[in-house]
Design brief:
Elements (H helix, E strand, L loop, with lengths): L8 E5 L6 H15 L4 E5 L23 E7 L3 H11 L4 E7 L10 H6 L2 E4 L2 H11 L4 E2 L20 E8 L4 H4 L1 H11 L7 E8 L4 H13 L3 E5 L4 H10 L2 E4 L8 H8 L3 E5 L14 E3 L1 E5 L12 E5 L1 H13 L1 H18 L2 H11 L1
Parallel strand pairs: 1-2, 1-3, 3-4, 4-5, 5-6, 7-8, 7-10, 8-9, 10-11, 11-12
Antiparallel strand pairs: 13-14
Helix pairs in contact: 1-12, 6-10, 10-11
Length: about 350
């Protein structure tokens, strides 16, 4: 006897994990809930990375239902589809993949075509998949948590606070932490005492890179590194306490850090490449110029014959100095950016779009 879920939608992914894919799953759940749609959520447990309990009481075992909405890295497509097939496919099985390079490896062609439909979280991912699959992939823009109230973006203690974050347990070359540090130091030589940089990191990998980061700390007292897993409330508090979010990424499938900062009307300086282009432009923030460069061996999964962006330190430094020199103008850009997120990425907007498409 086959038991069917009473929910119309089953969201499958990592909703109990603090990783970016976990936040994506939680935001999709919030979006569906905003439309009053009945849902069930299935959590895939990650050892040591399941520290978010927002939906702990709502997650349960998988039961074949009407619509499965799978949220995972594209590289895990086969693993997820095989598990669904083994346990019982839904009447419709949709895939919402994370991907961070502009070319998709050929080995994913068959499994991607096995899903009833694929929806992309960003224009960048939609373009890559459309070219690869030879058909138009529709975009369901990544929903973003946009607080209704937030602290004004004022400079506290006469210091401009710049913030960046990254996970050392993932491919850290993509996040480019040294680019963040070098751009800060180029923009603000040591004579500038009224600026500071906060680098939030977590993860146990890349010990050599950690030694390099420590050398920056020793030579520049304006730099602070926070190394631990923060709760959602602590992340929000950290974001609220800063003025500028800096991302020198080489690629982003979407870009939660810049998006969540912009949602709080923080000024965003980031590489003009990848998923962040959906919400960061000259009107909403400070796009950093770049040159495409080959991905080096083992810098990222499926690195062969791939390129990504190498952001310009000079362009980033110029942007940071522009913020410093005309803070009011920079804040007005952030206001426009938040309005853009409300229009295109709020839970209610994305929920309505999902209700229509699904």
């Amino acid at each position: 006897m086959k038991i069917y879920s009473p929910s119309n939608y089953t969201v499958i992914g990592f909703p109990l994990s603090e990783i970016g894919l976990g936040q994506a799953a939680r935001n999709i759940i919030h979006s569906l809930k905003s439309q009053g749609l009945p849902i069930n959520c299935v959590n895939i447990y990650l050892e040591g990375r399941s520290n978010d309990e927002e939906f702990a009481k709502e997650c349960g075992p998988y039961l074949p239902g009407k619509t499965n909405f799978v949220i995972s890295a594209l590289a895990d497509a086969d693993r997820f589809y095989s598990a669904l097939k083994e346990q019982g496919l839904g009447s419709r099985n949709f895939f919402y993949p994370s991907w961070e390079l502009d070319r998709v490896p050929y080995q994913f062609f068959d499994v991607l075509n096995s899903f009833d439909a694929i929806f992309a979280p960003s224009t960048f991912i939609a373009d890559a998949l459309s070219i690869f699959l030879g058909k138009v992939i529709k975009t369901i823009p990544m929903p973003v948590k946009i607080p209704k109230t937030f602290a004004p973006n004022k400079i506290a203690s006469s210091k401009l606070r710049i913030y960046s974050s990254m996970d050392f347990d993932s491919a850290v070359s993509r996040k480019n932490p040294l680019g963040v540090l070098d751009a800060f130091k180029l923009a603000f030589p040591l004579k500038y005492k009224d600026v500071e940089l906060i680098l939030k990191i977590r993860g146990a990998l890349h010990p050599q890179l950690r030694l390099i980061l420590e050398s920056y700390l020793l030579n520049d007292p304006r730099i602070t590194i926070i190394e631990k897993t923060l709760t959602r409330a602590e992340i929000d508090e950290l974001t609220q306490s800063c003025n500028v979010y800096l991302s020198m990424h080489r690629s982003e499938g979407f870009g939660f850090g810049p998006a969540e900062a912009l949602a709080c009307e923080k000024i965003v300086v980031c590489t003009d490449y990848g998923g962040t282009r959906d919400f960061i432009n000259e009107k909403t923030g400070f796009p950093v110029e770049y040159q495409l460069t080959p991905v080096k061996p083992n810098e990222y999964p499926f690195w062969e014959n791939q390129v990504w962006a190498e952001p310009s330190l000079e362009s980033a430094a110029l942007a940071l100095r522009s913020v410093y020199d005309d803070y009011g103008k920079a804040c007005r850009k952030a206001e426009i950016g938040r309005s853009l997120l409300l229009k295109n990425h709020s839970y209610e907007v994305i929920g309505a779009l999902m209700k229509e498409l699904l």
